[in-house]
Design brief:
Distance between the termini: 49 Å
Shape: globular
Largest sheet: 2 strands, antiparallel
Strand order of the largest sheet: 1-2
């Protein structure tokens, strides 16, 4: 029997990890793959194992989807300060504020800037976690993927540099 658990920082989903894992495996076996539309369709019946995971009130779900779209929009709008340079984000997410603030305000405020740095380190950690998973999967198949190892080493260097910068 396979034992399932949620990875760290997973929000409460309304079902336990074992139930979720078994149901996702069932859906994958039935369809040959998983995608969001298939999982939603399989979860529609009120007695479906994953039914509690989803918001079935269409008004609430639509509003949440629009908020997701708004967050994507906010993150995607950048400014061009110099045509020779890359663009810069206009807004930066600050978790303690539960909102996005103008980048120039974040950069000028030491506390906000430090929080933005910590959030960037968290994203590096998430990327490292993903690379570690790929490395473990490859090792289980006796494969050695040197490019992934190299990417991992570069991310560790970036992580270390960011963490050292926080201490300054």
């Amino acid at each position: 029997m396979t034992i399932y658990k949620f990875r760290n920082n997973t929000r409460s989903t309304g079902v336990d990890a074992q139930t979720a894992g078994e149901e996702l495996q069932r859906i994958c076996d039935k369809n040959g793959c998983l995608d969001a539309a298939i999982v939603v369709d399989e979860s529609r019946p009120a007695d479906a194992a994953l039914h509690p995971v989803f918001q079935w009130d269409d008004q609430i779900a639509a509003e949440e989807h629009r908020k997701h779209q708004a967050r994507s929009l906010i993150r995607s709008v950048h400014v061009i300060r110099d045509p020779e340079l890359e663009t810069e984000p206009c807004y930066v997410h600050i978790a303690s504020e539960s909102s996005y603030l103008p980048a120039e305000i974040v950069v000028r405020n030491i506390d906000l800037y430090g929080e933005a740095q910590r959030e960037a380190i968290d994203r590096i950690n998430q990327a490292l976690y993903s690379l570690d998973q790929l490395i473990r999967m490859a090792a289980a198949q006796n494969k050695n993927d040197s490019e992934i190892q190299q990417a991992r080493e570069l991310l560790i260097r970036a992580q270390t540099a960011m963490e050292n910068r926080l201490c300054d």
